[in-house]
């Protein structure tokens, strides 16, 4: 399908979703949230093995369009508010349920809903120019897009309290120190490094990656004993797949596996 506020491109097994309102630092507007959700649904195709989410221009995503929010507040339009909150919730749920890795290539400022969109992804690579801010409090608003779930689990409750209660914006290096991003790279290398990671994921068994992703996120809300059970169940399922035969034989034959 065609999109107005994003771009969806596929190159081999890797699809890239690019938020495309560079003049507004890719702030959410109109049907942009719905377009992100639709693009993620397109990425469910078997041909896609990894997804990169990034922004165009100098920003990743600055969150909601404040003029739109002010208009919703002025008109006391709870239906409009509920609509955008529901779609945002559906987007982050889709990222988490998508049975393939989603990499956030954070090319610039990520604020408000934009930073939580990045935190919803499985892996984050940040440009040295990136910045991260839970800026909701500055507008008298509460965090959404799953931020109160993602941030304390990545950075710990104390760091989450500081970021969300102050609204301060932190650098890419500080985000790395807190565990919010996997690595920080030179700005001009961001797309190349993100692509390399996506291709590494794409070379591996898509069925096993899907199981790993489900298990990791189940572990965030499950007991140790439950996760041991899940691991045993998943390992038995993996052994029944052709990918396990290929992986084991390739190792013994000293060649790269072909999943």
Can I get a quick summary?
The protein has 259 residues and is of the alpha/beta class. 50% of the residues lie in helices and 17% in strands.
Structure description:
This protein is of the alpha/beta class and 259 residues long. It folds into 2 domains: 6-202, Alpha-Beta Complex (2-enoyl-CoA Hydratase, Chain A, domain 1), CATH 3.90.226.10; 206-252, Lyase 2-enoyl-coa Hydratase, Chain  A, domain 2 (Orthogonal Bundle), CATH 1.10.12. The protein has 11 helices and 10 strands. The chain has helices spanning 32-42, 66-74, 78-97, 113-120, 147-155, 157-166, 172-178, 190-202, 206-219, 224-240, 242-252, and strands at residues 6-11, 14-19, 50-55, 59-61, 102-106, 109-111, 123-127, 131-133, 169-171, 183-185. It has a 6-stranded mixed beta sheet, with helices on both faces. A 4-stranded mixed beta sheet has the order 4-6-8-9. Strand 1 and strand 2 form a beta hairpin. It starts with 5 loop residues before the first strand and ends in a 7-residue tail after the last helix. The model has no long low-confidence stretch (mean pLDDT 95).
Helix content: 40-55%
SSE order, one letter for each helix or strand: EEHEEHHEEHEEHHEHEHHHH
Number of spatially distinct domains: 2
Spell out the CATH superfamily of the largest domain.
Answer: 2-enoyl-CoA Hydratase, Chain A, domain 1
Rg on CA atoms, Å? 19 Å
> CATH topology of the largest domain, which one?
2-enoyl-CoA Hydratase, Chain A, domain 1
Q: Which secondary-structure class do the elements indicate?
A: alpha/beta
- Shape descriptor: globular
Give the low-confidence spans: none
CATH class (first level) name of the largest domain: Alpha Beta
Order of strands, widest sheet: 1-2-3-5-7-10
N- and C-termini, Cα separation: 29 Å
Please give the CATH architecture of the largest domain.
Answer: Alpha-Beta Complex
Mean pLDDT over all positions = 95
Q: How many strands, what sense, and barrel or not for the largest sheet?
A: 6 strands, mixed
Beta percentage is 15-25%
Number of strands: 10
Number of helices: 11
